[in-house]
Amino acid sequence: MPDDPTPRGSEEDRLIARHFRPLAKDPGAFGLADDAAILAPPPGFDVVLKTDPIICGVHFFPEDPPEAVARKALRVNLSDLAAKGAVPAGFLVALALPKETAEPWLIAFAGALGADADRYQCPLLGGDTDQTPGPLTVAVTAFGLVPHGRMVRRSGAKVGDRVLVSGTIGDAALGLRLRRQDATAPWSALSAADRGHLAKRYLVPEPRTGLAGALLADATAAMDISDGLAGDLAKLCRASGVTAEIDVASVPVSPACRSVLRARPDLIDVVLTGGDDYEIVCTLAEVDLGAFRAAAASSAVAVTEIGRIVVGTADPNFRDPDGRPRRFQRPSFSHF
Which pairs count as long-range contacts for 116-119, CB under 8 Å and 24+ apart, including other chains? Predict the structure, then answer.
């Protein structure tokens, strides 16, 4: 960010002054008038760091509204903080903007980013802006706070723990197929409301920040689900040196998703592996289930038990209602 606190200087300085300086309300941001910011954690707290950029054509569509792009850019990072039991403390944003980016787009983007920063009490602390011949890219780095040594890691799951997920699984993956007009999917069988639900779940995630305190108190391991339930649970199990038995019928799905599956049962693989859920998968000792469910309910976040942690090192076993294990051709989304 520029040193000059006034709108004078280069066009980049003026762009930042117009659109992003009003968002920098935290004293540690210095009004974006310095080259860096300060984040001072309270005594006894650790700072949790997370960065997850989004790229036009990869994570969102060129025609997506700027408000949705801004919200997605921040929220995918807040989802990770929530899974660690962390309270948001601030974020940096780096923008790579194509030359043709128009002023109204920036106004709408900055407005939505500021609204979400207020909503989630996660102030803008700084960042950078660049012009690029490539696709629009928004890189957010988010910071959260947890009591010292208490961050909920992937590596704490123990044999006998129960596996739970928040919200519903698979909506965003189906919403992406809907956006791409996948001819093999039964969109004609869906109501307009169901189509809208699936499309919205892909467009703008809902980070489960309200669950952070419950995870911090009770979870033995947790992570957010961004690359698909099957693949992300496998990552958690590998980090913990265990595996899991999962009941596919217990995986929570929305009414819209259920309508799709009635017409195309084979799309359950997309639901379980497609990604972009931004829900949380976690493990808990059985004795802590009641307290966790009560805390989740008080935060208005639905949680569902879907299986248990067992001895082993293989990938988690997802069993169909008839007891047979499912075999996924592509258990997890990967950019590579």
Answer: 116/70, 116/71, 116/74, 116/75, 117/23, 117/74, 117/91
pLDDT tens for 164-212 read 999 999 999 999 999 888 767 788 778 999 999 999 999 999 999 999 9
User: Taking the CA of residue 125 as centre, how many other CA atoms within 13 Å lie in the half-sphere pointing to its CB?
Assistant: 18
- What CA–CA distances, in Å, run from 310 to 4, 155, 161? 58, 14, 8
Q: The sheet that has 243-247: what strands, in order across it?
A: 219-225, 279-284, 162-166, 303-310, 243-247, 317-319
Domains of the chain: 11-147 (3.30.1330.10), 154-319 (3.90.650.10)
Q: Quick one: DSSP state of residue 335? A: -
Where the chain has pLDDT below 50, the residues are: 1-6
Q: Return the structure tokens found at 265.
A: 């049962």
**Helix orientation angle between 171-179 and 255-263, rounded to the nearest 10 degrees:** 70
Q: How far apart are CA 18 and CA 22, in angstroms?
A: 8
Q: Is the whole model's pTM more than 0.85, yes or no?
A: yes
Quote the CA–CA distance of 153 and 238 in Å, as a whole number.
12
A 10 A CB-CB count for 100 gives: 7
- 19: CB partners within 8 A, 6+ apart: 106, 107, 109, 110
End-to-end Cα, the chain, rounded Å: 32
Radius of gyration of the chain, Cα coordinates, nearest whole angstrom: 21
Tell me if 143 sits within 8 A of 273, measured CB to CB.
no
What is 52-107 written as a DSSP string? --EEBTTTB-TTS-HHHHHHHHHHHHHHHHHHTTPEEEEEEEEEEEETT--HHHHH
Do 145 and 53 touch, CB atoms closer than 8 A?
A: no
